[in-house]
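stuck on this fold:
=====
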Amino acid sequence: MNTKAIDAIANALLYEGYMLYPYRPSSVKNRQRFNFGVLYPRSYSEAQCGADAWSAQTECLIERRSVAGSAPEVEVRVRFLKLVTRETRSQADYLRADHSQADRRSQQAAACWQEAIECEVSGPRCDLDGLAARPIALPFRFPASKEVEPLRGADLGPVGEVVRIQESVEGTVEITAEPKTDDLFKLRVRVENRTRFEIGEGLREPALARSLVSAHILLGVDDGWFVSLLDPPESLKDLAADCHNVGVWPVLIGAEGARDTMLASPIILYDYPQIAPESPGDLFDGAEIDEILALRIMTMTDDEKHEMRQADERSRRILERTENLPAEHLRKLHGTLRELRPLKEEAP
């Protein structure tokens, strides 16, 4: 799998909506996060009458390079975020009576926050003839954990603690193949969240802690080619239309014209999506206009920037990078045009 070509796009997708401008825990849009590609526990999904997904499925077509050749070999990687609840337990620093009401609200929001760690489930390299005869199921489990970090004051004395709690997450990745012609296969990958979850009060936050967040599927092939589902050849349009994708949509990714890597994304993309070369770094919004967000961050008050720094390491890096952005780099973000094509002259 051509990992270099997909890493930038896949990571932008992984953190889409992780934290949005104004990048503060107390802002309304950051109090209910993680709306893209979330696979909840099945019991929670069924309690919501299926409104919130517990599984995702992608189907795509793969051509054999030659009828007489060996069967194409596929590689499957499922990636998602697992949430980590961070609690800062320090009455003295975070809930002092002399703070303003707004300041106490921002401190309380920062004191309890959801960070995230990256998780990946990789399947073995499989030839499609073998998959057609014997589908495979890959169970996975990421265990619960708890970490306690001492919180120290300016004099290095203890003033509290930071507690990070992870709930266990488990599920299954099912991979199957179906021959459609002598030189064409349909590949199916299904991801299911089978984490146990007791239905109770305040459902969403506990369910999110046991969810696969920003779940997406990376596919690679050797001795074969993926078929674009957005622009399939005329001879394959009916078979492409018969591919059943639920919660994700597969697009070709990598260098223009390459057909060895696909990304099944919970956000609709075109074939060969690209990160703008002028972008200085991720802002957790793949459709972002970097110049506008950079200028908005620069106009934040000192108190707002302080809250942004306290949120987590990722938001702190955004602030530091933006504040140190050279003027010439900021100018590069303004008014860039590409992919212009001359208009064809109309026939008289």
Observations:
- Residues 289 and 333 are 8 Å apart (CA to CA).
- The longest strand covers residues 73-89.
- The chain has a mean pLDDT of 86.
